[in-house]
Amino acid sequence: MSGMKGDRRMLENDWAASREELGCLAVEHLSFSYGKRAVLDKVSFRARTGRICALLGTNGAGKSTLLKCINGLLAPKDGRVLWRGMDTSELPMGRRAAIYGYVPQDTERGSALGVMETVLSGRLPHMGFRPSGEDLEKTEEILKELGLADFAFRRMADLSGGERQRVLIGRALAQDPEVLLLDEPTSSLDLRYQYAVMELLRQLARKKGLVVVAVLHDLNLALDFADQAVLLAGGKAAADGAVEEVLVPERIREAYGMETEIGIFGKRRVVLPVI
Questions:
Q1: C-alpha–C-alpha distance, residues 145 and 158, integer Å
Q2: 46 and 85 Cβ atoms separated by less than 8 Å
Q3: CATH no. of 23-273
Q4: DSSP for 106-156, written as a single string
């Protein structure tokens, strides 16, 4: 009888592990070097659907490199990236493009393309020689969802930083991704648009069940919006967990080399540098 209970417990554990695997992006022992310079050293973490995972660390900590290793723009030296249990490095490029939506740092500042064209270009993994009615309908839907319909025929170069960032997120969403990767989505934005973009990402994660992984420099934005934080230091994941557990003075000191205090204002936690 005890043997049957043990077998059932093992099956239940296996089923729970399978469900966990099916709902997360898993980075396992990932290493990367630029020539002889090691940047990432056996980095591991899991990011789950419907949540925002913030990648934190100093300049040069390897955050942007990690994003590019995840989506296959860079080939890691060791380790692997799994999505729903699949090693995505083994998938064709078109299949990877349907899984990962990637928003680099703002590279469209001088683009001559229009807003609608830019978002529509995200449909390329699904498109034939010309856009279908479904492609155009999807693009129109995203423009409305992100509040960009009035800008559809404006040039990217004529938009504000916050508007342009929303367009780049729209282009990534047009791919119908399951994982959204963003490299400093709030860089060069004023305070209002920083919070607007992060709130948009939170809504997209919850509403569409996306895994959102974002490189952030502002620790307070991470505290306000992220569910999870991965703190990179010395090429390793120095800490990984709930953002309020990762961003504590001891770990911030180790990663950033400065003293901080955590202030509590109502329900909000705030990182305060000690000057």
A1: 21
A2: no
A3: 3.40.50.300
A4: S--TT--SBHHHHHHGGGGGG--SS--HHHHHHHHHHHHHTT-GGGTTSBG
For the entire predicted model, the pTM comes to 0.85
Which alpha helices (DSSP H) does the chain contain, by range? 2-22, 63-71, 93-99, 115-120, 133-145, 161-174, 191-208, 219-225, 243-246, 249-256
pLDDT in tens, the chain (275 residues): 555 555 555 444 443 444 455 679 999 999 999 998 999 999 999 999 999 999 999 999 999 999 999 999 999 999 999 999 999 999 988 888 889 999 988 665 657 789 999 999 888 877 767 888 888 999 999 999 888 899 899 999 888 888 888 899 899 988 889 999 999 998 878 898 889 889 989 999 999 999 999 999 999 999 999 999 999 999 999 999 999 999 999 999 999 999 999 999 998 999 999 98
Q: Provide the token pair at 89.
A: 């490095």
